[in-house]
Amino acid sequence: MRLWIFLLFWANLLSAQVPPSAYYAKELPIHLTDSQSLQLFSPPQFLQGPLDSLLQRPQFAIWQTGDSLSYRSYLVQEAPSQLITVSLFVQPKLLWDDNKGIYSKGPRAWPIFPYKGANFYQKKEVPAQLALIDSSGLLWEGPVGLSIFGGSSRAYEQKSLAIYARSSYGAKWIRYPIFPDLPYKKYKRLVLRNSGSGFKGSHLRDAFIGQLGRELGLGVQAYRPARVYINGQYWGILNIREKLTARYLEQHYGVDKDSLDLMEYSVNVNAGSSAHYLRLRKYMQQHNLADSQHYAQVGRWMDIQNFMDYQIMQIYVDNQDAGGNIKFWRPKTANGRWQWLLYDTDYGFGFYSKGGYDFNSLKFHTEANGPRWPNPPWSTFLLRQLLKNQDFRQAFLERFCDRINGHFQAERLCNRLDSMGQVLRPELWRHQLRWQLHHSLWTNRMQEMAEFAHKRPAYMAQFLAEFFPEFGPQQSLVLQTQGDGFVRVNDLYNTEGLAQGLYFQGLGLRLKAQPYLDQRFSHWIINGQRYEGQSLALPPQARDSLYITAVFELAPKRDLIINEFSCRDTLAGDWIEFFNASAQALQLEKYALEDEKGHRYQFAAGQLPAGAYLVLCRDSLGFKKRFPDFSGQLWSGLNFGLGAKSDQLLLYAQNELVDSLSYKLGKSKDSLFLSLALRHPYLQRSNFALNWKKERNAGSPGQENPIYSKKRKERSLSKNWKAANFAPYLWGLALFLALLLAAYGLGQYRGRE
């Protein structure tokens, strides 16, 4: 009897459980006890227990058990998307009420687009519930604030939304690493963006341009497209973006959010003060920047290289809405300089005018008397003043050419555009059906962007030639490599194989040849003449074409190699093991080690015997605590640390690269290992994932790597097994099988008789 009562009690507990937010391939059974009720929203429906029911479509559900409420997103009979799924719940009246709903036009809206005066232009925030879901299940859910976001794009049927995590709602952070390529695990502010002016077009234009800006080192918003539901109703694709706030700057640049100035538009203050910026503008207005002293002073107040890249980006992509979308910031320190953030570039890459590739946006962005919109005089003031300085003009033109030849190569841009489009394609048809958008709008916009990528360089070269006549005629620049290596151009971009670009006869070139592993640089061939030296500074060349070839050749066999290293051992500290793979002793003073940040360690005088190991560490005391029995060569004094997540090590012998490795390590699943060992001392180190093994133990410094020892023993056992004389046993087995086969054949024959 007691057992029966216990089982009944347990069954009631099970029936009272609330199913988690997730995708459900089949109908979802719902069991309500007499103390439970369920509110559904798509369409509205209220269920009261006791009750057994089935959900057969996507629903946002509020469970009530006693006095407690549980919010759930049930995506029933929905195929999971390749995109992350965002499910939002907002009390319907807060969104759709004719008088106060933040998503509705309301009674004061203009009758025509963009419906100025509508409710959705209010800066009103309402409480909401947010769930992040993928095919594996629930990623995060919790209470947030929600508001309508954007400018005139608020007038579209699908609107951009701003998401706020606040303690007052019950969740201080959205604790999920939403952007896989960023190291951050939590966010305070997010935007679900309808792609702004690109809502009816590519749905990725701003994100595409932003990713190009990120490669130039500009501050941009991260991007991740999402499938969205509101109150259980499919809401199409919205792009998850970061919000450019003081918190963003704190997260990305490591500055205190309360100790910075953040401004937008002309002199609007988002955080801090405008005093420093107004001082900068006043100085630039009152002083002639053609004077090198005044130009240098401006360079102490603003990051001129950052400003160059920002302007180059806006000009090249032909963003004709840039004048109204300007954000810039500085840390409040003695040497804090202004930097610019790239955002809201939907008018770029051929959107504003048909084609767009032939529009002279250099003239547009330097117009002294432009209209109030889109290029008022205050928006072009800084660039116009800086262009009075000849050093700036030369650096700006040189940098512009390098960006066109390197980062803006048409094939490269089209590959990026195509890969981003492929991510959207599986979801796009449903999004277009939801908002009654014709697919041709998307394909036409994507084709326009590809056309822009191909045709823009030639027109841009013409505009640059007209604006900078003092640097002479255009010059065709042809760079190629023979052998395995690449060329670093003006310390800004790398090229290998055959590449053609534009340049000007009045500009010099700085070149550095970088061989790959097992190669070494031999010489240059420039317009038929041979030049020596791995680094080369070419003066301006009065030629229509400049043909440059970097020649690489096979290097002698490596002798000293990186064999094992540790970058996560808090006791031993960082250490690197080297192995002499040659047949003779090595003089170590000819070697030097560099990391990806350019830190350099020069080996002291010493000798390493053939087949011997040397360990270089930062902390010899910590190393000896970890390895008390170590008796090999140990050198301390490594003057830089190894990146715990990623780094690059370059080993040089008299400035010739003899070994290298680049690693990028994961997070959670890789958190237990302490060292990394080369699987075989004579393997190419270029394929890190294939040729290096993560060891959970502390490592084996000063001796053969365990993974190599294990494989050698396995090969030895295999060889011994093959050498054993198993012939008598094999002959016996063969005879037995022959007799068995004969007996089977005889039985078959008698059966037929």
- Count the DSSP helices: 16
Gross geometry: globular
Strand percentage, roughly?
A: 25-35%
- How are the strands ordered across the major sheet? 8-9-10-11-12-14-13
The averaged pLDDT comes out at: 88
For the termini, the CA-CA separation is: 71 Å
- Got a strand count? 39
User: Low-confidence segments, ≥5 residues, pLDDT <50?
Assistant: 1-15, 715-727, 749-753
Helical proportion?
25-40%
Rg, nearest Å = 33 Å
- Write down the domain tally: 5
Pfam families: CotH, LTD
Domain LTD: 556-664
InterPro entries: Lamin_tail_dom (IPR001322), Lamin_tail_dom_sf (IPR036415), Spore_coat_CotH_CotH2/3/7 (IPR014867)
Organism: Saprospira grandis (strain Lewin)
What can be said about this structure in brief?
This is Spore coat protein CotH. With 753 residues, the chain is of the alpha+beta class. It contains 16 helices and 39 strands.
